[in-house]
Amino acid sequence: MKKLIIGNWKMYPASLKEAKTKFVAIKKTASKLSNVQTVVCPPLVYVSELKKLVTGHRVVVGAQNAWFEKEGAFTGEVSLAMLASVGAQYVIVGHSERRALGETDELVHKKVLAGVKAGLTVVLCVGERERDPDGEYMKFISEQIKSAIHGVQKKELKKVVIAYEPIWAIGKNAVHPASSDDALEVSILVKKTLVDIYGKDAASVPILYGGSVDAKNAWEFLLKSQVDGLLVGRASLDPKVFGEILNEADKIK
Ligand code: PGA
Question: From the centroid of its chain, how far is CA 12?
């Protein structure tokens, strides 16, 4: 399976011009790599503009969030169907930064179902705020997955990706980066949770690791944590660093 490397640009960069420059630079590297599927998730307002710069399949565009209803009186929202109609192929759902803004498990669940129905690949983010010595976080993660994918049909699983993002390892305020063992433990848990529900076919659902991934640690997660790819925040905004991550991923067959 190709490695799936997703850049989550969050609310950067400040202008469309910069977004285009970054995207073109990333595309230059990504389009050469046959062993990597690259996805860039810019702020919503840039999605359709960057989509115009897509050529081929090796690098495509996704979104960081959307609303679950198809259309309606939801001032300020953008629907998953709208995103699909402008060419987004992926959508991140349940990122911890959105959950921190009040997104509940119930809302995440609705977005997962609607995203799959809209034909997008849903990148469901799960992860604990902190680790407790008794391992309660394992139960927490497993419950997050179960509640979010409840009602997703087995045949729709090919439209689902699970990203393990321990909150304590994300962003500038990360306590410390997760180790490849931390990620391995949870990637096994995610697989088991899915297989318990859907049977062994679910073993093909890609699992990503995210949280302080950079050009130095990317290979370690990919090689030692049994993950199929990475969800990259800060490092995806620097085309040089992101290019290094993509090149590392390409080397791992
Ligand atoms: P980070 O963010 O790579 O900057 O830690 C990851 C994410 O929030 O998806």
Answer: 16
Average confidence (pLDDT) per 10 residues, the chain, 253 residues: 97 98 98 98 98 97 97 97 97 97 98 97 97 96 98 97 97 88 98 97 96 96 97 98 98 89
- Taking the centre of ligand 1 as the mean of its atom positions, its distance from the CA of residue 62, in whole angstroms, is 16
CATH of domain 3-251: 3.20.20.70
Residue 61 · residue 89 · CB < 8 Å: yes
Distance CA 69, CA 78 (A): 9
Alpha carbons within 13 A on the beta-carbon side of 94: 31
Cβ of 170 below 6 Å from ligand 1: yes
Residue-range domain boundaries for the chain: 3-251
For residue 181, how far is its CA from the centre of ligand 1 (angstroms)?
18
Quick check: CB of 171 below 6 Å from ligand 1?
Answer: yes
Cβ–Cβ < 8 Å for 87, 125: no
- Catalytic residues, by residue number, are 95, 165
Span from the CA of 49 to the centroid of ligand 1 (angstroms): 23
Can you name the residues that pair with 38 across neighbouring β-strands?
Answer: 5, 59
Question: What tokens does 47 get?
Answer: 């999605």
Name the 3-class secondary structure at 162.
strand
Residue 11 to residue 64: CA distance in whole angstroms: 10
